[in-house]
Amino acid sequence: MTSLPDTLKLGTRGSPLAMTQANMVRDALIAAHKLAPRAIEIVPIKTSGDKIQDRALAEVGGKALWTKEIDRALEDGRIDFAVHSMKDVETIRPSGIAIAAMLERADVRDRLIGAESISAIAAGGRVGTSSPRRSAQILRARPDLEIVLFRGNVATRLEKLERGEADATLLAAAGLDRLGQAGIGHAVPVEQMLPAPSQGAVGIECLADRGALRAFLGAIDHATTHMCVAAERLLLEKLGADCRSPVAALALREAMGLWLRAELLSNDGREHVTGEAHFAIGDDAAVAELAASLLDRSPPALRALFTG
Length: 308
Ligand SMILES: NCc1[nH]cc(CCC(=O)O)c1CC(=O)O
Known about the structure:
By secondary structure, the protein is α/β, with parallel strands linked by helices. It has three domains: 8-103 and 201-221, Periplasmic binding protein-like II (D-Maltodextrin-Binding Protein, domain 2, 3-Layer(aba) Sandwich), CATH 3.40.190; 110-187, Periplasmic binding protein-like II (D-Maltodextrin-Binding Protein, domain 2), CATH 3.40.190.10; 235-297, Porphobilinogen deaminase, C-terminal domain (Double Stranded RNA Binding Domain). Helices cover 34% and strands 22% of the residues. It contains eleven helices and 13 strands. The chain has helices at 16-33, 48-51, 57-60, 64-76, 132-141, 154-162, 173-178, 211-218, 223-239, 284-296, 300-303; strands at residues 8-12, 40-44, 81-85, 97-102, 110-113, 126-128, 146-148, 168-172, 186-187, 202-207, 247-254, 257-265, 272-279. Ligand PBG binds next to strand 8 and helix 7.
């Protein structure tokens, strides 16, 4: 790769999960290209999202809080590429930034910690989460439960649970597994709790006009993950969803193409619309049709959460 610098700078948030994911990407690139370890340098970047711990993300400005400082570093050339949890990357990205690759998706499920199943949470119990999707899904299944705001990184949320600030919490299995907490909690089947769009996927972004770098990063792209996550993200775009919209979606590869399932909920979980579609890879119109059908079938109060 003659057109690439000797050392490539990988930008990431500095949380333990982000650093673990950055190291996974670094290791994969080093193995794929038989590089010396010093060829990729990890550059932790503090984002606004990391500084705000006491309010729900939806209240304070959305997912861009986790990307804008890193986007700036890409644009300024302080880093060559960035690693993100795809779940935290806004649907509409700056046009100069491209998703160059995704690692193979991990377990897409949420894990419930503090009870063996949603039905086993004590009557009237408190569930800690700041995710509109998780709280709406929990309230739909168990209207008797109370939602308490839980923010912070995975370790902070587990500490809050430990301190008794809630009886149970939900965290992504992918994050727990990557942090060496594979033994914690009970996976909730996707039939019971459809995950967030992009959950479990790690993405790599760089400037769109850096062709040689994109090819270099593309060497570790997991094509199936990339097309499934792209379909879930396109659905969010077509729904006009933002980080406040309680929405779940999961695409799976099947013989003839993709199977995409989605669920829209009102915040209290009382309104609920689901849909699914089977379509050929690249059939964006089928995704748009699914979005339109979900919105069509939504009562006005639910549709209002997806105005975009
Ligand atoms: N919003 C925080 C976030 N972003 C990505 C993950 C987990 C890893 C993943 O989904 O890939 C988490 C924590 C969680 O939801 O439990």
